[in-house]
């Protein structure tokens, strides 16, 4: 199991388009992927749950991944966040 944090660094935070891109990544994996603030974790494969987080720029999110492909899932999620969801600034 991986239990780590990830920072939201893109200008608009985890808004609809960014959440959609995150869903594209998370749904490729069999692992359970949860994201949230502190103990309030939500399913990172559910767009409505992601939008309800209200994670703006500068938010530190907890990321919990468990399963056979957890390392690859973490790598791709970190890449997406680091690339600021491939949005123009």
TrEMBL record:
One of its GO terms (cellular component) is cytoplasm. One of its GO terms (biological process) is phosphoenolpyruvate-dependent sugar phosphotransferase system. It is found in: Cytoplasm. The keyword Cytoplasm applies. It holds the Pfam family PTS-HPr. Residues 1-88 form the HPr domain. Keywords: Cytoplasm, Phosphotransferase system. Its main location: cytoplasm. Gene3D superfamilies: HPr-like. It comes from the Bacteria. InterPro entries: HPr (IPR050399), HPr-like (IPR000032), HPr-like_sf (IPR035895). Belongs to the HPr family. This is HPr domain-containing protein. It comes from Acinetobacter higginsii.
């Amino acid at each position: 199991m991986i239990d780590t944090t990830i920072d939201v660094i893109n200008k608009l935070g985890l808004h609809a388009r960014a959440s959609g891109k995150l869903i594209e990544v998370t749904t490729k994996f069999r692992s359970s992927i949860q994201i949230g603030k502190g103990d309030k974790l939500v399913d990172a494969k559910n767009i409505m749950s992601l939008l309800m987080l209200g994670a703006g720029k500068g938010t530190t999110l907890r990321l919990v991944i468990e399963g056979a492909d957890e390392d690859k899932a973490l790598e791709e999620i970190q890449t997406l966040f680091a690339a600021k969801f491939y949005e123009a600034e």
